[in-house]
Amino acid sequence: MSQTAAGRPELEAARLLLERMGISPADLLGVQPARPPAPTFAEYVPIVAAAVSPGTRRAYGSYWKRVVQAWGGRRIDEPLPSEIEQLRAEVQANVVMRRNNRGGRSAAEHLVSALRCLYRRAVADGYLDAADNPALKVDKPRRLPSTRRAIGDARLAEINKAAASTGDDPALDSLLIRLHTETACRRGGALALRPRDLDTDQCLIFLREKGGASRWQPISPTLMRHLLAHHAERGDGDRNSNLLRYRDGRPLTYRRYDHLWSRIGQHLRWVHTQQISTHWLRHTTLTWVERTHGHAVARAYAGHTEGAGNGSTATYVRATLHEVAIALADLTGEEHPLAAEP
C-alpha cells in the first residue's frame, strides 16, 4: 500500500460520516461537475459567428441562419442526431437549383460542417461533453469529384478579351484575371492583398489564404507594374489597407467576382453554361505547372501544405521558391529575378 493511501480506519471513518449524511459511495460516483445552462440556437449562433474567421463565417453563415430558423428557440443540447439528419435532408431537398447543382449534396455537407463547427465551440465552452456532440454522429454526404478542369489556351484568351473589352471597369477586371492566372491564388488571397505585401525588388506578393496559410508568391514584372499603378491611382496612401479597389476608392469585395463572371457569361455562352469561375483559373494554372514542372512544384505553386493524405515523401520533396519562379517565368514568358538565381 502506498504512503498516501488511506488505511482501514480512515476508510471506516469516511464511510461512517457518509452514512450519517445520508450519502452512499455510489452517489459520489454519479456526481457531475456543474455545467452552465445551454443557450438557445438564436442566442449562441451570433457568439460562434463572432468567434470564427471571416472565411468560416462566410462559408457557414447561411447554414447557421437556416438552423436558427428551424430551431432558434431550442437549447443547443436538445436536438438528436436523427433531427439533424432530418434537417440535412430538408436542406438538400430545397437547395436552389443551378446548372452545376449535384443534387444538393454540397448544401447537405455544409450544413453538417456548420453544425460540427458550432458544437465544437459548445464543447469548448462547457455546454456539453465531446461524447454528446450530436453533429459528429451524423454522416456528411460523400464529396463527388469536382467538375472543374483546366481551360484551354484559346478559351482562356476569349475570357481575357471579354474581361478587357466589356463592363464598367475593364482595367480592374483584366488585372484580376491576370493576377489569378499567374498566381493560381484564391479570391480571398487576392482580396487580402495590401500594398505592403508587394516586394518590388524580387517581384513577389505575400498571399494570406484560407486556414491561415500564407506564402510569398512570384509574379511577373508586368503584373507588378500594373499592381503598383493600380495602387497609385486608387489607393488611399495606407500601405496596410486593401490593395485592390474600385474606381471610387472602395475596397474590392467578392461581389466584383460574381459580377465579372456573370458579365463574361453574357458574352461567352460556354462560360455561363459551364458556370466557369475564378477557381477554374486556379485549376488551369496548376494543371499546366504540374504537367511541365512536376507535382512538387505544383504543390508549392498552389500553396498546399503538408497534411493527411499527402504521404511522408511530401516532406522531403518540397519545391523551393526558386523553382516556383522558374515555372512562373515559363508560364508568362518573362524573366523573373528569382528564376535567374542558382
Summary tags:
single chain, 342 residues, mainly alpha, DNA polymerase, domain 1, hpI Integrase, Chain A, 3-stranded antiparallel beta sheet, 54% helix
What does this structure look like?
- With about 350 residues, the protein is mostly helical.
- The chain is built from 15 helices and 3 strands.
- Helix 7 packs antiparallel against helix 8 (about 170-185), helix 8 (about 170-185) packs parallel to helix 13 (about 280-295) and helix 13 runs antiparallel to helix 14.
- The model has no long low-confidence stretch (mean pLDDT about 90).
- It holds the Pfam family Phage_integrase.
| N-to-C order of helices and strands | HHHHHHHHHEEEHHHHHH
CATH C-level label of the largest domain: Mainly Alpha
For the termini, the CA-CA separation is: 69 Å
Can you list the strand order of the major beta sheet? Answer: 1-2-3
Tally of alpha and pi helices = 15
Mean pLDDT equals 88
Structural classification = mainly alpha
CATH superfamily of the largest domain: Intergrase catalytic core
Number of domains: 2
The main pleated sheet reads as: 3 strands, antiparallel
CATH topology of the largest domain: hpI Integrase, Chain A
- Helical coverage, percent range: 40-55%
The number of distinct β-strands equals 3
Quaternary structure: single chain
Shape by Cα distribution: elongated
Percent of residues in beta strands? Answer: under 5%
GO molecular function, one term: DNA binding
Organism: Micromonospora sediminimaris
Protein name: Tyr recombinase domain-containing protein
Family: Belongs to the 'phage' integrase family.
